[in-house]
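In the laboratory, one determines a bound structure by crystallizing the protein with its ligand and collecting diffraction data. In a computational setting the workflow is compressed into a single prediction: the sequence and the ligand go in, and a structural description comes out. We illustrate the idea with 2-phosphoglycolic acid.
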Amino acid sequence: MQRPYIVGNWKMNGSRAMLAEARAIDRAAARIAAVEVAIAPPFTLISALGEASTAIAVGAQDCHVAASGAHTGDISAPMLADAGASFVIVGHSERRADHGESDALVRAKAHAALEAGLGAIVCVGETLAEREAGRAEDVVAAQLGGSLPNGETFAALGERLPERLAVAYEPVWAIGTGKVATVADVTAMHAAIRAQLIAAYGEPGSELRILYGGSVNAGNAAALLSAHEVGGALVGGASLTAESFLAIVSAAVRDNE
Ligand code: PGA
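The predicted complex, in structure-token form:
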């Protein structure tokens, strides 16, 4: 059984002034060994946050598929590792929407991250129209089928797969909206995702963590984190202050006890 994994996604927010929040999160996380705490700040803060932290992991919100080359404005997975990142979020719905990222591209990014020695959090989630049409599970299954690491990258990971890979289920309509999926909907989706992970990966597929994301806050975290097969949370807005983020980390401790 792995520890609950609580990951803050700062998105395009944060300047050096926010390092104070990160330090406060890090100090608290050092005393909460029962929870694995991580923050994915914008690229510009990865090095500084890495230097300011001892207990939390620092990650990125995206990477390029290539290790280097003529790709103006992009950042590669080996560069992220060099800057002190230990994981990358790939396939977030904002990147899928804003940058037209396909499942195949998301898979290639996950492969690039894993091959650079980083962890990867692969994000999936349906839109409101897809849920209302009764297609939520099919949409998520198709995204997973196209985005999950496979082939040689998967084979090379072997038993380390559950430590290096996580899936985040983030219904698009719940992100940044204050609308949260019901615990019943989350439980049903996570069960479907788990079945697919086991079908794809065998035994390691039963261990890797499936995070929920979408308007997680101090008030709803305990109920969501105690739902079956919810191994943690990917937190946007509520990760931007130590106070609101640590309330979610504390809810994960209670759930774990
Ligand atoms: P939110 O974002 O917590 O602000 O809804 C979650 C996410 O997009 O990862």
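The pocket of 2-phosphoglycolic acid is lined by residues 9, 170, 175-176, 213-216, 234-238 (CB under 6 Å). Keep in mind that any predicted model is a hypothesis to be tested, not a measurement.
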